[in-house]
Design a protein that fits this description.
It contains five helices and 15 strands. The protein has 355 residues and is α+β, with helices and mostly antiparallel strands. The protein folds into two domains: 104 residues, Nucleic acid-binding proteins (OB fold (Dihydrolipoamide Acetyltransferase, E2P)), CATH 2.40.50.140; 218 residues, Beta Barrel (OB fold (Dihydrolipoamide Acetyltransferase, E2P)). The strands form three sheets. The protein has a six-stranded mixed beta sheet, with no helix packed on it. The termini are far apart.
């Protein structure tokens, strides 16, 4: 089917319309990786009442704005939608999309100029979430465009240099014998792009000792990693009770900011109780540490600002020290303990140092 692209819409797709049918109506067709004014031959992949989604089978007439994408995974990976467009034009298109969306949905006619604040076109992201493959060999990657199929990658050009170095180093180390239960890993770099935190998401079959062993290996071999946090996976393959979905959102448990989380220590199995989940979320918002319950397994989180009053078992001095140093506290957590009942503050583990 030959179509002409009219404009770009929110999400990056191009909008085209089919020729009018017998009823005089045309159908909207959304096509990714195109530009306004281009003529394309498409294959319809999904059709619904009033619209369809298609993929380009052949580019008949290319826009003069079209450029070669820098990323070798572009159009395979589901992350980026505009790399075939020069960055300056990307900003202009996004401003037009914002103006049109406000007018169409909010009925707001924006008369003022939209001031553009662009970032560097490459290596600007300080956060990325990667899929983890351990069989037949270790690999990191993303999901293929429009699917749940794994796409292994060696780099991500829009991620910061530190994130790319860690990705390359993990491949070089073959994942440090990453436990098979680890399904995803999310990396957060700081503003200076010198240190980062790692969130790992695991399935129900995870062995806590394997997870802690892997976390210690990561911190030992990758000194850029300031801490590792484990969460239960959101994948349905983990078969956790559906009523836990809202309670298991890690963002609800880190209201004080991702940089306050440093490591996860093991506890004992616990039955599912919604009152416990609600109480944990409330305590997390108050920046106090409480057991974080995950799919029948209880973990105790080390929050940096309250590192001196956590009952830590099996945590190394280096992990304890990195958690304390991140807050800038050099006085054994005195400020962190302020306002908490004394009897609720366990003694600091023997040998744990804060500076």
């Amino acid at each position: 089917m030959l179509l002409s692209i009219e404009k770009l819409i929110y999400g990056g797709d191009g909008l085209a319309r089919t020729p009018p049918g017998v009823d005089g109506r045309s159908m909207a067709v959304f096509v990714p990786f195109v530009l306004p004014g281009e003529r394309v031959d498409v294959e319809i992949r999904q059709e619904k009442p009033g619209f369809a989604r298609a993929l380009v089978a052949q580019l008949i007439l290319a826009s003069p704005d079209r450029v070669e994408a820098r990323c070798p995974y572009f159009r395979q990976c589901g992350g980026c939608h505009y790399q075939h467009v020069p960055y300056e034009r990307q900003l202009e298109f996004k401003a037009e999309i914002l103006r049109e969306t406000l007018q169409r949905i909010a009925k707001v006619e924006l008369k003022s100029e939209i001031r553009l604040h662009g970032s560097p076109p490459w290596n600007y992201r300080n956060r990325t979430r990667l899929q983890v493959q351990t069989v037949p060999e270790f690999a990191l990657g993303y999901l293929r465009f429009g699917s749940h199929e794994f796409l292994p990658v060696c780099e991500c050009p829009i991620s910061s240099p530190l994130l790319n170095r860690v990705i390359a180093r993990l491949h070089e180390l073959r994942g440090l014998n990453c436990p098979a239960a680890v399904e995803e890993i999310e990396l957060f770099a700081d503003g200076a792009d010198e240190r980062l935190l790692a969130w790992a998401f695991f399935g129900l079959e995870a062995d806590k000792r394997d997870l802690l062993r892997w976390a210690e290996a990561l911190e030992r071999e990758l000194p850029e990693i300031a801490g590792v946090t484990f969460f239960s996976s959101r994948r349905q393959t983990s078969k956790r009770p559906p009523e836990d979905d809202a309670a298991m959102d890690p963002k609800a448990l880190t209201q004080s900011g991702a940089k306050s989380i440093r490591c996860i220590l093991p506890g004992e199995p616990l039955s599912h109780r919604r009152t416990d989940f609600g109480r944990d979320r409330q305590c997390a918002r108050r920046r106090r540490t409480r057991p974080v319950r995950r799919s029948g397994v209880i973990f105790r989180g080390v929050v940096a600002e309250f590192s001196s009053h956590i009952g830590c078992r099996g945590v190394t001095d280096s992990v304890w020290r990195s958690a304390a140093e991140c807050t800038g506290e050099r006085e054994s957590g005195r400020r962190a303990n302020r306002g908490l009942p004394e009897e609720r503050i366990p003694k600091k583990p023997a040998g744990a140092k804060t500076s």
